[in-house]
Structure of BTB/POZ domain-containing protein KCTD3:
Amino acid sequence: MTIPTAYCIADMARNGDIIHLNVGGKRFSTSRQTLTWVPDSFFSSLLSGRISTLKDETGAIFIDRDPSLFTPILNFLRTKELFPRSINVHLLMHEAEFYGITPLVRKLQLCDELDRSSCGSVLFNGYLPPPVYPAKRRNRHSVAGPQYMGGRAMSMERVPVRRSNTMPPNLGNAGILGKLCRYPPASQVADPGMVRIVCGHHNWIAVAYAQFVVCYRVKESTGWQQVFTSPRLDWVIDRVALNAKVMGGSLGDNDKMVAVASGTEIILWTICPDGNGNEIGVFSLNVPVEALFFVGNQLIATSHTGKVGVWNAVTKHWQNQDVVPINSYDTAGSFLILGCNNGSIYYIDVQKFPLRMKDNDLLVTELYRDPTEDAITALSVYLTPKTSDSGNWIEIAYGTSSGTVRVIVQHPETVGSGPQLFQTFSVHRSPVTKIMLSEKHLISVCADNNHVRTWTVTRFRGMISTQPGSTPLTSFKILSLEDTDGHGGCAAGTEIGPYGERDDQQVFIQRVVPDTDKLYVRLSSNGKRVCEVRSVDGTSITSFMVHECEGSSRIGSRPRRYLFSGHANGSIQMWDLTTAMEIAGKVDIRALGGPTEEELLELLDQCDLALTRTPDMSPAASFTHSSTPRASTCRYAARRLWYCQRHKAGPCTAT
């Protein structure tokens, strides 16, 4: 008669004190008392016969686990001591939970808590707790019908686009790089308390939650203070814009403005000096709003379908106008520059908007047309400093749907002939999704998992003079896996960048997986890691933004750069990137860029990577959606998993 294996093991445990184990191919010998002093553990169940198992050719009990992690577990069972500095706490905790060694699990949890300070690292700069949920907005007027301003309904007609060979002079200072985003359905929002978007202007930030927006301002003496909370809306916020420095106009010098958009609708408030807000109006673009921002006092809304909406603070007038389909935009002083689907770059001088109210014409003028008429999918305007000798000149870098990167320039001596094609790079094989031209670098990002190419820009007397055919400075990827289940994240709140002033070194922000408490800050010029930040309270990071706040009133004080991270619990955490950059400048920045293979696998270990979904091959950028609970399941496209395994995949080889 054959005796069951479980009974053989139980009999061996009763009759012998020495237990032989084969863990993952490595032999261990220990006593029964050592293995069973923790009640209700894996080993007590194993040796009592409650768990059936296999034996190897020598009769040792086979356990299919990592032998290197079993060694410290067995040492703890023998000595009740732990040496955490020589081990990976997270991996060992996972194994201790499998074996059911409760005292070891508690010690490892304590080690993890001691390692994570609720006051953060030296870069941690501040914490804003979740705000109080506001009262519901009273429905003052419909958001779906015609828009009435000044007592009359607005009716817009398509206006022909003018073509011009000249660039308007004196554009002022360049604005930030913008990128149009795909519109997520409101039904995807799962957690109304998480931070969806953070945006900044001067010493103010606006924080958008699912149904309301909160504004904060900072003063050197009092720190960050909450100054405005909007009413709770009936729909989900997908875009937010902030203007903290209104110059003149009927609003007054001290008034600020904040606007939010959802779907086709936009609500605009003015924030008074006492912190109270007044609703200016509700406007409709009639198509989904995919970009919302201010140019001076003007609120601008655009859609890839070819709609541009403008609200002017002087006239208090809202106007929609049809243009050709829009793929990208940038701002330069009072000018809005549009990259369009037909291969043309157009500009609108929004300061002239009030002068043309009679015929509802935004003076949309063609500035340049791509030689191959590829869609302009990314756009960056760089304005050089004014000089007494030659005035100022303009440089525009743009990317196309075919992956081509071009630079066009217009100098004072060539004003009559319009911008001239200066240089062409054909190194991307996927559509260009982002581009940035700065004083020292040209940076492009394509749709192949955020593959970045950078070039060093040479200048003569401030004018670009990069030699044709120059070799790229570096090539790397900002991997950012997207959550295809849609747990309520917002693409506008997780843009990778690059962030920063165009005369300074800029940075990318990398969040590898949606449900993580860690961000990597990397130089945009070479991809090297400046620092990493980790949530001080362990909550998932659902949005982020880099913004420079003005310095103090002391002489010589300069603006400081901060990373603002929004979290699943509704809090805002602030990190001092100026200090991080200074520390990185004093020592050799490690060649390390994004997550190492070990860090990447540790992040991916939190997620279920499903291979059943079809990769998204659209030209749009890879956007990240946040999942709030840590226990939730994340599913990613198969192509992204393959990249994680290879680490250097894709049509454009990254180094």
User: Anything to note?
Assistant: The chain has nine helices and 41 strands. The longest helix spans residues 102-115. The chain has a mean pLDDT of 77.
